[in-house]
Amino acid sequence: MKIRHVALIAGVVTFASPAWAAPQSAETLKSAEQVVRLLDMERAMDNMFNDMKGLFAENVIAALERDAAQSDYLRHLFTDGRGGRERFVQILGDEFVKSLQTHYGDMRKAAAEAYAQQFTDKELKELITFFSSGVGQKWRDKSPQIEAVMGQWGERAGMQAGSLALGAALQRAEVEMLGKGTGQ
Q1: CA distances from residue 100 to 86, 105, 136, 170 in whole angstroms, order as listed
Q2: How far apart are CA 98 and CA 119, in angstroms?
Q3: What's the pLDDT band for 13 if we cut at 50, 70, 90?
């Protein structure tokens, strides 16, 4: 579900161009803001960013380690600091999520504007009715469990795809980059 929410927001924001979007009434924007509140996008964003924070931290560390001055400091931090590299990955990841959370107000505003541009006030009120109904509430309540199952599936599929991709990439690189198997 979180991926669907994020994809929906990203898609709507991407294709909702102010140049062609009709001005929205205050009532339509208010309805859109209510839809955004009901969707609890912050929870989905928190889950997604918490899943990504280790990867983010490792990428930042890898970039810093390529710089001689930063590399020396990181080596000192990892060697002499309590918890070493693992602890710094955790700290950097936590700070990444906290920093992103400061932008949630802007995200809610952008999402509401995008919904207001893509849906009529009547349609937004229908969404509000659905998400406020018993089945809509159940959908919102069950979304985290469904997201967790899909996240686990994604991890397994990603590991399998990564393993297959690495093998294929190494074989291809030997041919394309080293000329092996081509008589060169």
Answers
A1: 21, 10, 28, 36
A2: 32
A3: very low
CA distance 156 to 77: 33
User: What is the DSSP-derived secondary structure letter of residue 21?
Assistant: S
> d(Cα 9, Cα 32) in Å, to the nearest integer?
12
- Residue 77: Cβ within 10 Å count: 14
Q: Which residues have C-beta within 8 Å of that of residue 124, sequence separation ≥ 6?
A: 28, 31, 32, 34, 35, 115, 116
Q: Give the CA-trace dihedral at 6, 12, 14, 18, to 10 degrees.
A: -140
Whole-prediction pTM:
0.65
Residue (of 37, 28, 40, 33) closest to 123 by Cα position? 28
Domain ranges across the chain: 2-132
pLDDT digit string, tens, across residues 63-109: 999 998 899 999 999 999 999 999 999 999 999 999 999 999 999 99
Cβ atoms within 10 Å of 105's Cβ, excluding its own: 10
Name every residue whose Cβ is closer than 8 Å to that of residue 95 and which is 6 or more positions away in sequence.
none
Number of alpha carbons in the 13 Å side-chain half-sphere of residue 134: 0
